[in-house]
Amino acid sequence: MTSSTAGLLTELDNGILRLTFNRPERMNAADFETMKSLIDAVTDAGDNPDVRTIVITGAGRAFCTGADLAAITTNPTDPQIVMDTANTVIRAITSTSVPVIAAVNGPAAGVGVSIALAADLTYAAESAYFLMSFVNIGLMSDGGASALIPAAIGRARAAEMLLLGERLSATDAAQFGLVSKTLPDDQFAAHIESVAKRTSAAPRRALQLTKAALNAATLDRIDSALELEKTGQAELLVGADFAEGATAMLQKRAPHFK
User: Do 61 and 24 form a contact (C-beta atoms < 8 A)?
Assistant: First the structure.
């Protein structure tokens, strides 16, 4: 069964629900409607006994390159609503009763990184990379990244990603422990399929309780991080630095912060 909503392709087959960011012309940058569709799909899946595994990936050559800056600047939404939506995505992924696999088939940036790391199993193709460039446009990390990234790779390496906005290759992501495994591009799809079939055949309740216990032990600070990010980002989204940073990015020039 396949359906398509705003920016998201949904396919359920043999217990595996595949959710594909479907804005390849924008490198799968997510607009408000795409995020809402993702929330609905993940939330509904947790209540659907026919769904036993969720796979999140991207169409074309990107996974998800974060929020669509063009959409934000041309059709601005209340910053509180923007942050509530981003936070709800992460909470939906971490709390849903079935395993979530992030198949990072290409670049992941901004909230795309947070979505990938909120998943229970995260795999990357060798051509992928991870980028948290919020500071480069006058913003702070969000989507729970301030908890998700250090939980995976420690504070020192997380600080380089978040404070310097440096790109992390998929190879380094696997070496640091940010992802479960990085695979050659030509082996990536087969590996995702193999893992998804394995989790979809496993006892659902056992996986649900294991996931809950694992998250309680490793992501116990996620809610406080989401709230701190919401407060800070809501302030920054209406600030002069973001206005300059976003304009500079869209104009493909260096920003000039005062």
Answer: yes
